[in-house]
Amino acid sequence: MCTDFTGLNKACPKDFYPLPSLGRLVDGSAGNEVFDFMDASRGYHQIRMLPENEEKPHSSLNMVIGRNMEIYVDDMLVKSKTKADHLKNLRETFNRLRESQLKVNPEKCSFRVISGKFLEYMITERGIEPNPDKIQALLMMEPPKSYKELCLAISDVAVSSVLVREVEGTQRLIYYVSHVFREAEERYLVIDKASFAVVVSARKLKAYFE
Questions:
Q1: What is the pTM of this model?
Q2: Alpha-carbon distance 102 to 96, whole Å?
């Protein structure tokens, strides 16, 4: 027996503590010199609290989030602009973890590295780079043989856009946005697909426009 919980989900109380934007976390992490990747042991199950307080966890880790640390559920990243700041940032993070009585899984931790995967993105000192695991299909795909073939291939599959910044007459790429069409979206008219590309870009790049 299968059950559709769509209606039930709409009726459930909304989350007043939404998860942070993945784009903001990744953007705020890239470009640092040293990284430490950590994974919380057993996620939030190690946090003991009263039932009436389960919706609003809070710890001293909030004091470093966004400054030299980013957290998404149980994934933690300590970022350091320079190697000189690395030990100081790591020490502060461990002190906060100790105060909050949180443990990490050593098998899923990497310390003092210059790049690594965070939320399925490759984070490096240079910025955000392609995740090899995510582009295998693209690498194996036969390249288009003409400009027309390229346009036709893209228009029926997905929409994409780039956010650029002009510096001294040269355009610098800042962010890429793409969306693979669902079944109904594939039947949109060409003009509707173009409009949909604007909508997708505006939604995903909202933080840059505010």
A1: 0.61
A2: 9
